[in-house]
């Protein structure tokens, strides 16, 4: 039977609860346990799909087509276990389900209430489908004390009594701020945070305390005493240079040992961490450096491109180089010549995006890459813009545009209202709901034998994750192919362009899907490994 580890956060947000949970998952896995990570998000959106990336960060898409919190990306990268739509639930989704049930009459006669109906629904979600795992790590979004998170805290409190004895462990992640005038790390915020948690009935078993310098043993004792946590279970979590060092660092501090001890499990033998050491060494001691420009529109919040940043780093690991990222707001190119920005970089990446703002700048970035033979990687929107650029400059389709920006004289990129998922037809109304209605999740694509992309993947059948509403219009295929842009990958029915590449160019590839979502530190995605390699070759030329 699965054991449960609940991870809550206190004091402030952004302490890295997602990474801490992922790292603990990885440590348990390195001891031979099967783990699953799940996230409870207290906001009212049904999923993060409709939130702005600059507010909420990246939307992580699972194989089964769910739009989820970016922490699920960390879970996958650290444990290699693909997440599913059942691994992330929000208040909005819980309420949607409950209200639908209420309307159907499922609760006939009852008053529907937060306790027990909402908490029951949360518990059912947490407990569901865990037959094949040893540990379920459940991260609760937000910070203790948030009004909206209360039903989630209440649900995990109840589970502590309902699971068999020794079936649940509570970890609380807090912060010790350093106060320069006192010259001390302070325990008080942690004390208050635990007090808040205990007031709703949860006594943490383990405190994971973030600090920017080592925690003196006196302070550790104090937290142990005031928070009612054994001293050995007050674990310091210091900053590390790379997130992939976190499992190693937390193991050194005894996190996994304490967790097992709290469950009454013998912590011997030690976890096998060789592959983590290899990844960290690869990042710490690169043999060179390469600069890649990311021409996007959410560059103000790096979390908006979380998986992309990680995938590029993985590509760096496989080429033994450090990948330096040059963030450029695409709108700049609509006012200024891109040359001074782009002639200093060895690769140009235009990532996914939505809406017209900045699109012309992205088109100009693709043009620069094509004309100057700089490696170009267009992802989703970045592919669409590269195709528009090629249509305008190479195929003579002067008014090429995307219907995403309004009616287009030449809809080289257009809305798609029908497509096949396996053998099933999916349909959408062009003016329908925006939430959850894109082409989402894993779809297979067939790559043209002999194409560069088939060569990179080493196969002609691939499966990648999608998240888009518009498609490159295959009506323009012939003209574009004659002009030098190959449609090297198509959906299996041959209707939807999945990848394009320029023939006369060292490395110019666009993909309609999001390969960054499937890259792992141990298994860098072949497209990122190849793109970084092309950038390294370019950097030797200039
Ligand atoms: N906005 C484009 C579409 O909906 C691209 C989406 C994306 O880049 N993820 O098709």
Q: Mind sketching the topology for me?
A:
Layout: E1 3-9, H1 17-29, E2 35-41, H2 53-56, E3 60-61, E4 67-68, H3 71-79, E5 88-90, H4 91-104, H5 114-127, E6 135-140, H6 150-162, E7 168-175, E8 178-179, E9 184-185, H7 188-199, E10 206-211, H8 217-227, E11 234-238, H9 246-252, H10 255-262, H11 274-284, E12 288-296, H12 306-319, E13 321-329, H13 339-342, E14 347-350, H14 359-372, E15 376-379, H15 381-393, E16 400-402, E17 410-415, E18 418-421, E19 424-427, E20 439-447, H16 452-457, E21 461-468, E22 470-472, H17 477-482, E23 485-490, E24 497-502, E25 508-511, H18 526-541
Parallel strand pairs: 1-6, 1-7, 2-5, 2-6, 7-10, 10-11, 12-13, 12-14, 14-15, 15-25, 16-17
Antiparallel strand pairs: 3-4, 8-9, 17-22, 18-19, 20-21, 20-23, 23-24, 24-25
Subunit structure: Homotetramer.
Protein name: CTP synthase
Family: Belongs to the CTP synthase family.
Give the overall shape.
globular
Helix fraction, binned, reads: 25-40%
Separation of the first and last Cα atoms? 59 Å
> What does the largest sheet look like?
9 strands, mixed
What is the strand tally? 25
Unreliable segments of 5+ consecutive residues:
none
**Structural class from helices and strands?**
alpha/beta
Order of neighbouring strands in the sheet with most strands: 13-12-14-15-25-24-23-20-21
Bound molecules: glutamine
Spatial extent as radius of gyration: 25 Å
Number of helices: 18
Chain-averaged pLDDT: 94
User: What fraction strand?
Assistant: 15-25%
Binding site for UTP: 13, 186-191, 222
Organism: Aureimonas altamirensis DSM 21988
Domain CTP synthase N-terminal: 3-264
Pfam families: CTP_synth_N, GATase
């Amino acid at each position: 039977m699965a054991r449960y580890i609940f991870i809550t956060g206190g004091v402030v947000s952004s302490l890295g609860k997602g990474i801490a949970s992922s790292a603990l998952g990885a440590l348990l896995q390195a001891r031979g346990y099967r783990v699953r990570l799940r996230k409870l998000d207290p906001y009212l959106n049904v999923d993060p799909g409709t939130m702005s990336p600059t507010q909420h960060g990246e939307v992580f898409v699972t194989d089964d087509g769910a739009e989820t919190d970016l922490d699920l990306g960390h879970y996958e990268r650290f444990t290699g276990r693909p997440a599913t739509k059942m691994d992330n639930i929000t208040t909005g989704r819980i309420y949607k389900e409950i209200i639908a049930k209420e309307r159907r009459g499922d609760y006939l006669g009852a008053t529907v209430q937060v306790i027990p109906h909402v908490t029951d629904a949360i518990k059912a979600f947490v407990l569901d489908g865990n037959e094949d795992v040893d540990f379920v790590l459940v991260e609760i979004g937000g910070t203790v004390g948030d009004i909206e998170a209360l039903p989630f805290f209440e649900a995990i409190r109840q589970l502590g009594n309902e699971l068999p004895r020794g079936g649940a462990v509570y970890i609380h992640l807090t912060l010790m701020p350093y106060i320069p005038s006192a010259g001390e790390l302070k325990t008080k915020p942690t004390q208050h945070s635990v007090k808040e948690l205990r007031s709703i009935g949860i006594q943490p078993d383990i405190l994971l305390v973030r600090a920017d310098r080592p925690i003196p043993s006196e302070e550790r004792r104090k937290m142990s005493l005031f928070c009612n946590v054994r001293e050995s279970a007050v674990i310091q979590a210091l900053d590390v240079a790379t997130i992939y060092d976190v499992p190693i660092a937390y193991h050194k501090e005894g996190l996994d040992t304490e967790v097992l001890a709290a469950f009454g499990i013998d912590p011997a033998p030690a976890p096998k961490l060789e592959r983590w050491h290899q990844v960290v060494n690869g990042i710490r001691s690169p043999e060179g450096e390469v600069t890649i420009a990311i021409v996007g529109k959410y560059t103000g919040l790096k979390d908006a491109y979380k998986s992309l940043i990680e995938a590029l780093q993985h590509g760096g690991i496989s080429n033994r180089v450090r990948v330096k990222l040059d963030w450029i707001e695409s709108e700049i190119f609509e006012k200024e010549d891109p040359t001074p920005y782009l002639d200093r970089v060895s690769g140009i990446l235009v990532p996914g995006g939505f809406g017209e703002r900045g699109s012309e700048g992205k088109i100009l970035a693709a043009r620069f890459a094509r004309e100057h033979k700089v490696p170009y990687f267009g992802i989703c929107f970045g592919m669409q813009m590269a195709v528009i650029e090629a249509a305008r400059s190479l195929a003579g389709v002067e008014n090429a545009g995307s219907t995403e920006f309004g009616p287009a004289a030449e809809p080289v990129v257009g809305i798609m209202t029908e497509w096949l998922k396996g053998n099933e037809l999916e349909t959408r109304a062009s003016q329908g709901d925006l939430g959850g209605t894109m082409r989402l999740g894993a779809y297979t694509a067939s790559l043209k034998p002999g194409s560069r992309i088939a060569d990179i993947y080493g196969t002609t059948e691939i499966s990648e994750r999608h998240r888009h509403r518009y498609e490159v219009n295959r009506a323009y295929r012939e003209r574009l192919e004659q002009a030098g842009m190959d449609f090297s990958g198509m959906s299996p029915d041959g209707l939807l362009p999945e990848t394009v590449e320029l023939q006369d160019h060292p490395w110019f590839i666009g993909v309609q899907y999001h390969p960054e979502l499937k890259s792992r530190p141990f298994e860098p995605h072949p497209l990122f490994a190849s793109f970084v390699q092309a950038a390294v070759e370019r950097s030797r030329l200039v």
